[in-house]
Amino acid sequence: MRIITLLFTLLFVAAAAGAAIAAESASIRAILIVASNQKGGSDPRLAPYEPTLRRILPRGFESFRFVGEGSSTLAIPGRAVVTLAQGHRLELEGEKSEARRVRLNVRWLNGRNVLMEQPVSVARGTPAVLGGPAWGDKGEVCAVIVIAN
Question: CA geometry: angle at 139 spanning 136 and 144, to 5°?
């Protein structure tokens, strides 16, 4: 009888460990950019994202400049931080996601200043763009491209 109890206990522990190992995760990459209404070429690193940027950001932005990027692995559910550049960072909270989408609560900060807080549903492998505040005094705005895999 003790052997059967021991076997059931071991099976339960093994099943719980397997469930923990199989927990969902997502690799998150974020790119901080500046959009400008000045004519000129965009940074070549942003070429794959330029059609999305033009579709999402308000009309009139002609060029896009790469500022910095970061990445992190996010357990779902769980939390992660992606450090970008010049004091910018994303605090992410992953929620239960669908098969091809990751649901995130995003908090975008620059130093201690909160620039944006909102839920975002990101399709795996497809960039999402978070529009941000003004950048400097030349009519530029910053944005963050978020890619979850």
Answer: 70
